[in-house]
Amino acid sequence: MNDYRITVRFPAALRQRLRAAALRGGTRESDLVRGAVARQLAAEDDALTAYERAKKAGLIGAVQGASRDLSTNPAHLDGFGSL
After folding, report:
1. CA triplet 37, 40, 44: central angle to 5 degrees?
2. How remote is the C-alpha of 4 from its chain's centroid?
3. DSSP H stretches of helix in 1-83
4. Model's pTM, two decimal places?
């Protein structure tokens, strides 16, 4: 796994709180920041609808060269679902 370094600027008061939290928890500031970012991104993913997840995964509009009204035009549904 490759690790990447980014630079983030904090207001002085927030940096002090981060430093104090790291000292209290016996951890590094960078570990707290990584954990906070991971939780935020997970919360955003949890809030996605099934449609949004499919779109994000590239599954929406994945059929190229097809009519744009495949699911709504009755002409495309002839024989679908019949025995």
Report:
1. 140
2. 19
3. 12-25, 29-46, 50-56
4. 0.55
